[in-house]
Amino acid sequence: MKIVETFIERIQPLDARQIELASRRLDSLTKPPGSLGKLEDIARQLAGITGETIPSFEKKAVIVMAGDHGVCAEGVSAFPAEVTPQMVLNFLSGGAAVNVLARHAGAQVVCVDIGVNADLEHPELVSRKIKRGTNNIALEAAMTREEAAQAIAVGAQITEELYAKGYRLFATGEMGIGNTTASASILCALTELDVDAAVGSGTGIDEAKRIHKQSVVRRALEVNAPDANDALDVLSKVGGLEIAGLVGVILAAAANRCPVVIDGYISSAAALIAARLAPLSVPYMLGSHLSQERGHHKMLEAIGLGSMLQMDMRLGEGTGAVLSFSLIDAAGHIMREMATFESAGVSRS
Question: Per the domain annotation, does 175 fall within a domain?
Answer without folding.
Answer: yes
